[in-house]
Design a protein that fits this description.
There is one protein chain. By secondary structure, the protein is an all-alpha fold. The chain is built from four helices and no strands. α2 runs antiparallel to α3. The longest helix is centred in the N-terminal third of the chain and has 38 residues, at 14-51. The two termini are 32 Å apart. The model has no long low-confidence stretch (mean pLDDT 88).
Length: 103
């Protein structure tokens, strides 16, 4: 039984396979970032216990990691075509969704 031409075209599309490679990479990175975020949470709590306030550097790191995870999830779930940092920028969320929105 011959393949439907649309399916055959999709199977031979290099961009589809390149996206799969990026998706595998970002799933791997996601698991590492989860561990790093857990470390930031623990360190931030210890900082608060010892000093009575949060650590501003850890707050910045946590914010960056949060935006990074958000970008990865958008890309992995096909909500955007924009690749996450470092292959794309850390642009604002509204601009990223608008540029990546599928028609």
């Amino acid at each position: 039984m011959p393949l439907d031409p649309t399916i055959k075209r999709n199977l031979l599309n290099q961009n589809t396979w390149l996206r799969l490679a990026f998706m595998v990479l970002f799933v791997f990175i996601y698991t590492i970032v989860e561990v790093v975020i857990a470390g930031v949470v623990v360190l931030q709590f210890v900082s608060h216990l010892l000093t009575g306030t949060d650590n501003p550097i850890l707050r910045v790191v946590g914010g960056f990691l949060g935006r990074f995870i958000y970008q990865m999830v958008l890309f992995l779930t096909y909500n955007t075509e924009c690749k996450p940092f470092p292959f794309g920028g850390l642009s604002s969320d509204k601009r990223r969704r608008r540029r990546g929105r599928r028609r």
